[in-house]
Amino acid sequence: MTLLLLLMVSFIATGNWAQERVWTWQCQEGRCVKQLLQRNETPQGLEACKLVCDIYSTLWPRPTGKVELGRVLVPINYNAITIIGISGEGRALSENVGQLFSTAADNFRNRLTTMFKKQEQRTSGGKSLQVQVTIHDSSTRTLTMESDESYELYISEADYSQVHCNIVSAQFFGANYGLETLSQLTTFDDAADNLVIMRDVNITDSPAFPFRALVLDTARNYFSVASIKRTIDGMAASKLNTFHWHLTDSHSFPFQSSTYPQLSQYGAYTPQQIYTPQDITSVVEYARARGVRVLPEFDAPAHVGEGWQWAGPNVTVCVNAQPWNKYCVEPPCGQLNPTNDTVYEILGGIYHDIFALFDSDMFHMGGDEVNFECWRSSLDIVNWMTSQGMGQTNDDYLQLWDMFQKKAYMKVVEANGGNEIPIVLWTSHLTAEGAIDKYLDNEIYIIQIWTTGRDAAIANLVNKGFRVIFSNYDALYFDCGFGAWVAEGNNWCSPYIGWHKVYMNNPYTLLTNLGVDVSPGTAARELVLGAEAALWTEQVDESSLDGRFWPRAAAMAERLWSNPDEGWQQAEYRMLAHRERLVQRGIQSEALEPQWCYQNEGSCPSQG
Ligand SMILES: *[C@@H]1O[C@H](CO)[C@@H](O)[C@H](O)[C@H]1NC(C)=O
Ligand SMILES: *[C@@H]1O[C@H](CO)[C@@H](O)[C@H](O)[C@H]1NC(C)=O
Ligand SMILES: *[C@@H]1O[C@H](CO)[C@@H](O)[C@H](O)[C@H]1NC(C)=O
């Protein structure tokens, strides 16, 4: 008793009590097993073990081509890292791509610094790391649907003092991903107190789907530019490439239009809660250097209201009408008046301002949830339709909508310098069977699906030759599963969607189940551009943003980049590791499991 007390006192006195390491991790059959540290045994830290143990290391998303991993770690010195970018001919990169590349190299270094817990750890010894990045096309700096995002990555130990990494890519985007992969092959080994990297690596990698997106609604609640950039950081870490920005809605108008600044003056929640042209340019450039395209959406003719008061009484109809359930799906209601020419004039100005700031190769015109009762409630619209010899049936209103869409699209083309541009629209009455062939051209329109993944309408879209983006709400609406806000109980699309379901949401499987042949080589397969996770923000603002997106958005990212045949069970260790990575980089991701499961790999998912 006295001896024990004495021992305890001496532990406390020397401060060793907390530091004494009793556990080590050993790789056994592809998983890290926690074991008691034996006398004279050199401990292996958990992170170092994970890096060499899983067949795909802790890479997220896992590469799609060759994955040859040496599974040996060597210490490297943070202060002895050189990163150079060269063109295919071995010359310096052009200035345009050179600038992007230098930001990507800085980002790589910054990612490594997040691994250190103390400043001193950066200067601890180890080999030097030489990274040479070859970018064959050194002029392309804007991501499009035709961009080549592939890369190759090789790591070898050059000699006793140096580790060499070669990254080769067609364009900047692949080079940037190569650097992300390289940072994922690096960790701080807390047992050895060293930054370590995997020594022998051959990886070839390219995405399964070209369109891998998130949509953030910045109108139901406002999000600062900093939080948007943090979201883009998470996307870059997970190789997602499109940030779809739902700029405005009936609730608020934060987009500051240079042509009509009155819209945000009247429509922003506060004068501070706006996106100025400078804000938007800074987001677009931030995203560009991370391989992310920013796709703007201006939703119309529904989902408008705040801001438009400025334009006068007959430009919008049913704004904040009550009882709202009669005229829209959530308060406040509001739609543009397609019969009033001022509407197109203002839209033209807004589109012009948007095209001046964004350089996306497609534009999102929304087209979500048009309510015919809203239009019917306006004497101005009813009178106009009567004067045109039109009736008051749903078909007549569909025609009115079609007229709006065509006139608004002409304004888009005008804003785009007279050039046609692919347009994304949400699924709606206009895209339904019977309507879509009559009203929309499949060379222009891309349809974003937000029905369930089992809706036969999806098969119809592909059969009619439309390109599609999957945002089927039963797997990709991340706002589902919370309390309701217009009543008691749960919100409309409950329950909460777990990462497993997100991970398993394979667009090809959904189409196959609907009877569409999407086997390799089919035209139908080419029409599936990819998918997009949606965050509608009625019940989210900046304080809970990260946790709603992450790490579930990363689950979708692996589906879209790697499209694995295996189930989520095979990805679970890496999912937990990637979640830790996001947190380390300052993204407040939700915890998926007790930390115990992270430390005891493979022990938590039910085997039964
Ligand atoms: C990587 O490729 C080189 C050249 O083919 C080969 O010699 C080396 O063994 C490979 N590395 C691994 C870890 O398989
Ligand atoms: C359209 O709305 C504006 C603003 O209220 C109004 O001044 C104009 O007269 C309307 N145009 C028509 C054709 O009703
Ligand atoms: C708005 O529409 C109503 C109904 O057509 C009409 O009586 C009124 O003059 C219009 N107001 C303006 C400003 O155009």
Automatic annotation (TrEMBL):
One of its GO terms (biological process) is glycosaminoglycan metabolic process. Keywords: Glycoprotein, Glycosidase, Hydrolase, Signal. Residues 209-563 form the Glycoside hydrolase family 20 catalytic domain. It holds the Pfam family Glyco_hydro_20. It catalyses: Hydrolysis of terminal non-reducing N-acetyl-D-hexosamine residues in N-acetyl-beta-D-hexosaminides. GO terms for molecular function: beta-N-acetylglucosaminidase activity. One of its GO terms (cellular component) is plasma membrane. Residues 59-185 form the Beta-hexosaminidase eukaryotic type N-terminal domain. Its EC number is 3.2.1.52. Residues 1-18 form the signal peptide. InterPro entries: Beta_hexosaminidase_sua/sub (IPR025705), GH (IPR017853), Glyco_hydro_20_cat (IPR015883), Hex-like_dom2 (IPR029018), HEX_eukaryotic_N (IPR029019). The active site is at residue 369. CDD domains: GH20_HexA_HexB-like. Belongs to the glycosyl hydrolase 20 family. This is Beta-hexosaminidase.
